[in-house]
Write a structure and sequence with these properties.
Radius of gyration: 24 Å
Number of helices: 8
Helix content: 40-55%
Order of helices and strands: HEEHHHEHHEEEEHEEEEH
Strand content: 15-25%
Protein name: DUF1648 domain-containing protein
Keywords: Membrane, Transmembrane, Transmembrane helix
Strand order of the largest sheet: 7-10-11-9-8
Largest sheet: 5 strands, mixed
Pfam family, one: DUF1648
Number of strands: 11
Length: 318
């Protein structure tokens, strides 16, 4: 694969989109300045505004926040050699922030058009939900278009004979990793209850649009899928690639005992030093895979022995 410094999709969604969103707010103020009061409400305590600012000052402040905060997170997606799943996660978080601020800003401006007094203007709560949903949707689209441009190096020899081998290659091997259905059901139940309570207290539907993306993002960090086939080793999250290694890149696979917290400092997707990654979701056996480019990947699974043997056998046959 051609080596790149920047991922084109990451540049568009992680850099261009936040700058365009910031410019949209500035443009809206410029187009509406004749219809806006000299001071607009920009902050609320409960339902009453308690902070006011000139439209242009407010627009420039939010533009800076959008670029520095939202754009600062999402811009990591443009770095072609970064860890793919981390780039995807940061893009979704960054553009969710961008969408939230942009839609809320436009809604606040529209609500104060042609007013002579803004003392009783209410915050447009629906914009919080719509902005979150729009930003997350754009971030998810951008994340699905990112590609892995890391360095790929072919192994020069077969795995050592001391490593396990499999006698039966029943491919593909597909194994879920991380939180099970019961845990996810409990998570969604708690999230749904929190959303329902917030909707009831606010007497509005918009909290649902905030809690739904948060639940999806949480699942992406808790649930993974391991696939081993004749093409290689793959780990997916939300149906998108987290790790993709071809069989030709693998130098060997072994089995070791792993404690996620003592060995990697936590549960889930972890990085311990440069090029040393883990999907550590349970205490016990794990597949430890090494690659010709120097990277290492640890995946906890009860079938570690069989998976390691299958990988080594595929490498030897190749």
């Amino acid at each position: 694969m051609k080596q790149r410094t920047f991922d084109p999709a990451g540049v568009v969604f992680g850099v261009v989109v936040p700058i365009a969103a910031a410019a949209l707010g500035l443009t809206a103020v410029e187009l509406w300045k004749s219809r806006l009061p000299e001071q607009i409400a920009t902050h609320w305590s409960g339902t009453q505004p308690d902070g006011f600012m000139s439209p242009s000052t407010s627009a420039w402040t939010l533009a800076i926040v959008i670029v520095l905060v939202g754009g600062g997170c999402s811009a990591l997606a443009a770095l072609a050699h970064g860890l793919l799943i981390m780039r995807r996660t940061m893009l979704m978080i960054g553009l969710t922030v961008v969408g939230l601020i942009t839609v809320l800003q436009l809604a606040i401006l529209e609500k104060q058009l042609d007013l002579t007094s803004v003392d009783n203007v209410e915050v447009p709560g629906w914009a919080l939900g719509v902005g979150t949903l729009v930003g997350f949707s754009v971030g998810l689209l951008g994340a699905s278009l990112l590609r892995d441009y890391r360095e790929r190096t072919d192994a020069e020899s077969v795995p050592p004979a001391s490593l396990p081998r499999a006698t039966d290659l029943d491919l593909p091997i597909v194994e879920p990793l991380g939180a099970g259905r019961v845990a996810l059901t409990i998570l969604f139940s708690i999230t749904a209850a929190a959303a329902a309570l917030t909707c009831w207290l606010s007497e509005s539907w918009w909290p649902v649009a905030i809690f739904a993306p948060l639940a999806v993002l949480t699942v992406s960090l808790m649930r993974y899928e391991l696939i081993v086939d004749r093409a290689g080793l793959h780990v997916r999250s939300l149906g998108m690639s987290a790790f993709d290694y071809s069989i030709g890149e693998i130098t060997g696979a072994s089995v070791r005992e792993v404690d996620p917290f003592s060995d990697f400092g936590g549960w889930g997707l972890r990085a311990k030093g440069r090029g040393n990654y883990a999907v550590a979701t349970t205490k016990g056996p794990a597949v430890f895979v090494t690659f010709a480019n120097g990277q290492r990947l640890t995946i906890t699974t009860a079938n570690a022995e069989h998976i390691a043997g299958t990988i080594n056998t595929l490498c030897s046959r190749l």
